[in-house]
Amino acid sequence: MAYWLFKSEPDKWSWDQQVARGDIGEQWDGVRNYLARNNMRAMKLGDLGFFYHSNQGKEIVGIVEVCAEAHPDSTTDDPRWECVDIRAVLPLARPVTLAAVKAEPRLAEMALVTSMRLSVQPVRPEEWKIVCEMGGVDP
């Protein structure tokens, strides 16, 4: 299993909206960055990810699961762009802020710190465990 981080502006798509989609989930569409797209192409069913509110809040608020592997993005006719579907699994007991991630020396190399603009990022297993512990959930 691999781990990921999905960034969303909460005024465009929030954790609450993701939760409301239930087990059906929602496609993670509109991504127009090749590296982020390639990250989605690498995802497998059952991979887990953090749901991160960017711009407003700047915090990891929940855990999602990939429920459909990469497929054409329905928001464009351009065949270069693909997306995955994700479903909400669990809210974090305590949201983990960007400031808290940056303050944790063991997370200094996390993509959220080093590649902040990338909307879909890989998360290393050791980073996953640390952030889960910070968020009050069992990794």
TrEMBL record:
Gene3D superfamilies: ph1033 like domains. Residues 2-134 form the EVE domain. It comes from the Bacteria. PANTHER family: THYMOCYTE NUCLEAR PROTEIN 1 (PTHR14087). It comes from Phaeovulum vinaykumarii. This is Predicted RNA-binding protein, contains PUA-like domain. InterPro entries: 5hmC_binding, EVE_domain, PUA-like_sf, THYN1-like_EVE.
